Amino acid sequence: MRASLIQIAVDPDESVKARRGRVASLIATQRGADLVVLPELWPVGAFAYEEFEAEAEPLRGPTHEAMAKAAADAGVWLYAGSFVERADDGTLYNTTLVFTPEGERAAAYRKIHRFGFDKGEAVMMGAGDELVTVALPQTTIGLATCYDLRFPEMFRGLVDAGAETLVVAAGWPERRRAHWTLLAQARAVENQAYVLAVGCAGTHAGVPQAGHSIVVDPWGEVLAQAGAGEEVLSVEFDPSRVAATREQFPALKDRRLGLAPPAVLG
């Protein structure tokens, strides 16, 4: 199976409309790939909070339509990264879309863990409340976005739902790049799954992006990693290795669930 991770540079001088067209052109170059993956909030920039309200779109807005067409034109499964969705009730969400090679929407995932603590995304956007998986012909993918990577229980839930390949679209900052690589490998090892994690390049609202998109196998080995700038990271991997790894080292079978909370002493 071949996956192409497109590490998009977000330039504040490039309009959202122009970037949609440029990204569609990049997707077109990946005809023949089985899966193409885009990063988080690439239309506007993950840290460009002041732009969220103005650039918010309905679910079937311009980004949806452009990416559906791009998937169909290239004949690929497209994990289209995320955009700022405005729901019917006015709530904003950080929403990821997945399209089939025919351009049909296969899934939409609203980011569960919002970053920012008491500012930015954490206060401007609603939180998703559903884990999402999508069955591709070769593997079942589990959907996650950026800050989600820090919450292992979410990924275990995706694995329990059948995920074999965990896909993370991110706008991860350069200052925490070491965590990006470490956490991607940890999620792969503990879940005995592939991790495909794609970030952005460039600078979003003064925040340099980490780039360094990464593909990790079920043993935690890094199969490929990008640099800091815009690039396409294409990787061939064997989805059957997930089942083989879980058979060879069946750690997931030894989980103990439903343990009682610790006793309060004193």
UniProtKB/TrEMBL annotation:
This protein's UniProt keywords: Hydrolase
InterPro entries with a match to the protein in the record: C-N_Hydrolase, C-N_Hydrolase_sf, UPF0012_CS
Protein family: Belongs to the carbon-nitrogen hydrolase superfamily. NIT1/NIT2 family.
Domain CN hydrolase: 1-239
Pfam family membership, one: CN_hydrolase
Organism lineage: Bacteria, Bacillati, Actinomycetota, Actinomycetes, Kitasatosporales
An annotated Gene Ontology molecular function: hydrolase activity
Keyword Hydrolase (UniProt): yes
UniProt protein name: Carbon-nitrogen family hydrolase
SUPFAM superfamilies found in the cross-reference section: Carbon-nitrogen hydrolase
Transmembrane segments: none
